[in-house]
Amino acid sequence: MSHHKSWPKKDYPKPWTPKKLRSPEKHLISDHALVRYMERVMRIDVERLRDMLISDGRAELIRSIGTGHLHLPDGATLVVLDCKVVSVMRTDELKQGARVRRPDTP
């Protein structure tokens, strides 16, 4: 399709460029393998950490939030999506106005 010659080139939409990906070497280790390494080699009790994160009535708060952020007194923020914690961030590193994006939203 040709455009009228008076249409400036600068008005063409910018081509899509992929986001910068991690180096291929980092993809050699799955998150599952990292968790198993922490459990079996480093002797970190992952289940204890999981229980700690949902203690003090937090499980009920997570269910009631549904989707959003739950700020903890230790400076962590749980990112909740569909009643499940999907990430943990430091509260001081959260961007103002940040929101949880559902996979189907732009």
Question: What does this entry look like structurally?
Answer:
It is a single chain. The protein is of the alpha+beta class. The protein is 25% helix and 16% strand. Strands 1-2-3 form a 3-stranded antiparallel beta sheet, covered by helices on one side. A hairpin with a 2-residue loop joins strand 2 and strand 3.
- Portion in helices: 10-25%
Q: Strand order of the main beta sheet, please?
A: 1-2-3
Characterize the biggest β-sheet: 3 strands, antiparallel
**Radius of gyration over alpha carbons?**
21 Å
The tally of beta strands, per DSSP, is 3
Report the uncertain regions. none
Number of helices: 3
Report the sheet-strand fraction. Answer: 15-25%
Mean pLDDT: 82
Q: What is the N-to-C order of secondary-structure elements (H for helix, E for strand)?
A: HHHEEE
Q: How widely separated are the two ends?
A: 28 Å
Overall spatial form: flat
Broad structural category: alpha+beta
